[in-house]
Amino acid sequence: MILARLLRLARPTAGRLAVAWLAGTLALGSAVALTAVSAWLISRAAQHPPVLSLMVAIVAVRAFGIARGVFRYAERLAAHDAAFRVLAGLRVRVYRRLERLAPVRLPGYRRGDLLGRFTADVDTLQDLYLRALLPAGVSLAVAGGAVAAAGWLLPAAGLTLAVALVAAGILVPAATGALARRAERGLVRDRADVTAAVVDLLDGGPDLVAYQAVPARLAALAQAEQRLRVREARSALVAGAGTALSTLALGAAVWVTLVLGIPAVRTGALPGVRLAVLVLLPLACAELVAGLPLAAQYLHRVRQAARRVYDVLDAPDPVRVPDRPAPLPPPPYTLRLAGVRARWAADRPPALNGIDLELPPGRRIAVVGASGAGKTTLAAVLLRFLDPEAGTVTLNGVDFTDLDDDAVRRVVGLCAQDAHVFDTTIAENLRLARPDATESELRDALRAARLLTWVETLPAGLDTPVGEHGARLSGGQRQRLALARALLAGFPVVVFDEPTAHLDEATAEAVTRDLLAATTGRTTVLITHRLAGLEQVDEIVVLDAGRVVQRGTHADLVATPGPYRALWERQHAEALAGGEVTSA
Q1: Which homologous superfamily does the CATH classification assign to the domain defined by 14-313?
Q2: How far is Cα 278 from Cα 519, in angstroms, rounded to an integer?
Q3: pLDDT, tens digit, for every residue of 393-437?
Q4: Using an 8 Å Cβ cutoff, are 575 and 505 in contact?
Q5: Taking Cα atoms as reference points, which of 426, 432, 354 lies closest to residue 389?
Q6: Residues 525, 393 contacting (CB under 8 angstroms)
Q7: What is the pLDDT of residues 270-303, one digit of tens each?
Q8: DSSP single-letter state for residue 449
Q9: How many whole angstroms from its chain centre is CA 354?
Q10: Into which CATH architecture does domain 335-583 fall?
């Protein structure tokens, strides 16, 4: 049961929650006692007794009035501290899970949807502790004391109060919960849709403006917000109706108590002063049940949010993690793929099928092919983001599946086409690879990436901010910064996944030439659809539909009819056509 799992999350904070329950019980009990004692004091004072006979009640009114505020503050402090500790731990678990699932399992989620699960859905779970379980537990304890006190004064009044509290605190919340399941069906999903639509609108803003698609996206966002507002209005209506019914039940208890109490006063079975206490006691108990109908709604909302959170937490691992990983073998490293078949999902065809590849220390290969040929899948297998379903991948003879995946990624590093550049300085972007790197090491990495000369011309040098997503850098500079970061990390094996995808032909050729020069002596896998500069690699592997269809050097493949030569001729012709257009 999903609520049971959420309760297990709160075990480390059980002591704080118990303190919150005790403080809440004392606060609410003080509120009820304040009303009861005040009713007795006013009624007794109307009889003009000696003032000294009222002193105990006067002091009690002051004590209960102060205690109510003090205990309420203590309850809020302890409860929120406990809830925030639970959420902090859960948020860390979700983040670590997202890290484990990236990049293989995440494409099934929209970015905005993931953001909603990580923020709004996790935040919603605090309502289980703060607005559902804690109010219910406090109300149960105080209600028992109020019924016992009313029954001691007049048994019939105690029974009346008990019936009213059952109706207001159990039957009405149950009915409210049933209605809430209909009114709030899809509320969490609609809220997530709004978040996803906003994130998509912000991320794709420039493209949407360029294609004049902003009005359509804004209209879709407005529709999503309207659906959310309608659901929230229905939810508020149900909550208001529940509160009204609870108040009505306790108001009815006041009249029934009055009807039962007046004859008891006439017969002398009940002192008249105590009748005021009994009549006002149901009204004092209104605070006990006021939040329970809303608590029933929160329970349904929490279930929806929890399902979305646990959908991420329970997602299967993209790779098998051994209970006792084998130790990482010592360098130098040789990577070998034998008969590897891999697919992204069980219902999809193999993205790689029967791949054999050997990467001894220092070897440099290029993997080329059309879109969908399996190049990115090969990178995922090499980085152990994806396990093959057949065949083996070994590192110095040790099977990848016997190694810790993080250990593998300390040997095999990735420099992707969309390597993230953070909105901070050049130096801090580089230190993501090695936080303890010295300035001299940063400059060496930039020099190897052919970026140091440009950095030295900047007034702030290494402390120059690069802007959001590297907005102050050109495409080639962003890619060279990513290259410098990979070099600084010191990976023995480096995988470059489409490093020149968004660059013009001249810049792409220069970047390819420089990254191959910078990685001399390291095992290098260059995954690209562009053939410029591949004369420098030891071997070119051509993929098609997940299979190796050609392999050899650039000179050999260009001289041989086949897919590589056709691709090279097409790109060469496009480059010539582009040059003619430019010169014109």
Answers
A1: ABC transporter type 1, transmembrane domain (1.20.1560.10)
A2: 86
A3: 999 999 988 998 888 988 998 887 777 888 889 999 999 888 888
A4: yes
A5: 354
A6: no
A7: 888 888 889 989 988 888 888 888 888 788 888 8
A8: T
A9: 37
A10: 3-Layer(aba) Sandwich (3.40)
